[in-house]
Amino acid sequence: FPDQPISDDALVEFGRRFGPLEIHPSLEHRSSRNKEIYRVANTDEQGNIIPPKDTFWQYLKNSWRWHSDSSFREIPSKGSILHGIEITNAGGNTLFANMYAAYDALDEAMKERIEDLWVVHDHDYIMRLSPELNKNQNKDNYEKLPPVRHPLIQVHPITKRRCLFLSPHTMVNIDGIAPNKGRALLDQLIVHATQDQFIYRHIWAKDDIIMWDNRCTMHSVEPFDNTRIRRIMHRVTLTGENKPIPSTAN
Fold it and tell me: Residue 184 needs a FRET pair 20 to 30 A away by CA distance; which of 9, 83, 222, 231 works?
């Protein structure tokens, strides 16, 4: 939706038309004025760029890796809506990977290999990706969430199509497989799913609003100089309705 200079209240109202909204577990990334707004911004609420060693900055930088929103929840988000308030002129584009197409393109041997595999997702894994964040994080700034298990292949509840369910910034390992072998398989699938043929690149214009389905996509942010260039976006996240459906249930 181009050219939508709306307020946070209007964004929340729009999001609620699709169901209840999540509250993000990172307390310091919530808007102080509306806790349903998740601030995807490298600034504080006064517009000052956050220092690179700050835990706020470190967390956000890690969350710019490929991921699906709220994959760390037992019932992940069904969708997200993002408002581009202040955009960058170089870098900072949002990339989306089509997980239907990524699954369809797997050879039959790989599809059979991963058919009944489950992946452990953990919010704390985001912290462990950065040694500095892991060492300096204030545990009180993050709600504690237990690890959860999700099927590696899921069936979309509406379309009934199969797709990969990957979220690299929360995936710890494949349940029941030796850590080194599980990680190698996940890395192989991530490389496969993020090939150019499966990617849409959204080049932002000010006040764009984009909306996506977290159940069949993952996304990331292209690098930019986030120590000097401000990038401010506000997101609402649609609460999921059901646990992911494993392909073996279909």
Answer: 222
Q: Which of 240, 121, 226 is nearest to 169 (CA)?
A: 121
Q: What is the CATH number of the domain that holds 22?
A: 3.60.130.10
What pTM did the predictor assign?
0.93
Residues 6 or more apart in contact with residue 81 via CB below 8 angstroms: 11, 14, 15, 209, 210, 211, 235, 236, 237, 238
pLDDT tens for each residue of 173-189? 999 999 999 999 999 99
Q: At CA 227, angle to CA 225 and CA 229, rounded to 5?
A: 60
Residue 183's CB is within 10 A of a number of other CB atoms, namely 15
Would you say residue 1 lies in a domain?
no
151 contacts 118 by C-beta, under 8 angstroms: yes
Range of the domain at 31: 8-246
User: What's the CA gap between 138 and 179, in Å, rounded?
Assistant: 28
Reduced to 3 states (helix: H, G, I; strand: E, B; else coil), residue 71 is coil
Give residue-wise pLDDT tens across range 48-85. Answer: 999 887 877 777 777 788 999 999 999 999 999 999 99
φ, ψ for residue 130, nearest 5 deg:
-120, 110
The answer to whether position 2 is within a domain reads no
* 11, 17 contact by CB (below 8 A): no
Decide if pLDDT at 133 tops 80: no
